[in-house]
C-alpha cells in the first residue's frame, strides 16, 4: 500500500453501505442530546450508526434498544410456546429476534482507564488518563501544544500501545488486540487530520471510493455511496477535481467523506480546522455536528476557541498529559 494511504481509516459494513443518510436523524439527535453523561450513568441509547449494520436496519435499531429490556423475557416465553410466527407482523418483536444472535453494542464508544504513555525520552506524554465517551456523544479535546492530544488519538487508533492502563474502543480492548486484527478494528473508526492526507494523484471521487475498495465493497454499493457522501459534504459537483484544484476547506470535506463512507461508529478528528480560515473552519465543524446528530460518536481535537465556546459541547481540557477539566457544554479554558 502506498505510504500516503496508510492513514485511511475504513469501516466495514457487510455491504459497505453508509447508514448516515438512511439513519434516523430525529431519534439519533434527541438521544445525543439527552445523553449528557454523568459518567457511567445508564441512559437508553439509540443506534444511529451502529457498527456493521446496513442502513436499512438502522431504523429499527432504536426500537430494539428501547424495547429489548421490557420485551426480552416475554419474547423468550413466546418462542418456547411456539408463538413466534405471530411476531412477523410486529417489527419490534421481529427485530429483537434477529438481534439476539449478536452481542449488544457497548454503551461506551471509548473508555480509557488510568492510561499512561511514555515515549522513549522525557516525561510521560499521557500521565494517568481516565475517560469515558458514550456512543453518540460529541466531545472536544483542547489543550496546549504538547499536552498529549495527538498521543491520545494515536492510542485510540492503536497506532501506539499505552505504557500502562487500559483502552477500549467500540467494545474492543485495544491493548489485547492481536496485530492481525488491527485492520478490522480500525474500520470502526473514521479519522481526519489537519493536513487532509488525500491521494494527490487521484480525483475527489477516487479518494472517497478508495476507502470502500479497501473493505472490498461491491461496485454497485460504491457507485451509490460515494456520490451520497460527496453530496453530504457539499462536493457533488467537484467529483472529478484533483486535490490541488480544491480549497483547503474542500479538501477537508473530501477527507471527511472518505472517513465516513464506510459508516464507522466513531469519528476522530485531530485539529481538522488547523489549516482552515474561520469560514471553512465553521463549515467543517457544522458538518461534524451534523454527522454526530445522525448517530456517529465524534471526538475533535482543536485549538479553535471561538468554535468551542459557541458550540456548547462537552469539552475535555488536557495539560501536560492529564485531564484538568471535563465539562458538559464547556468552554475553552484560558491558558495561564
Ligand atoms: P499535542 O497533540 O497535544 O500537541 P502530542 O501528543 O503530540 O501533544 O505530544 C505530547 C508529548 O509527547 C510532547 O511532549 C511531545 O514532544 C511528545 N511526543 C509526541 N510524539 C513523540 C514521539 N514520537 N517521540 C517522543 N516524544 C513524543
Ligand atoms: Mg497534536
Description:
The protein is of the alpha/beta class and 336 residues long. It has ten helices and ten strands. The chain has helices at 25-34, 55-80, 91-99, 149-156, 182-186, 204-214, 219-232, 248-260, 278-293, 305-311; strands at residues 108-117, 126-134, 138-143, 164-169, 172-173, 189-193, 266-270, 297-301, 314-319, 322-327. The strands form two sheets. Strands 6-7-8-3-9-10 form a six-stranded mixed beta sheet, with helices on both faces. A four-stranded antiparallel beta sheet has the order 2-1-4-5, with helices on one face. The longest helix is centred in the first third of the chain and has 26 residues, at 55-80. Adenosine-5'-diphosphate (ADP) binds at residues 119, 121, 125, 143, 145-151.
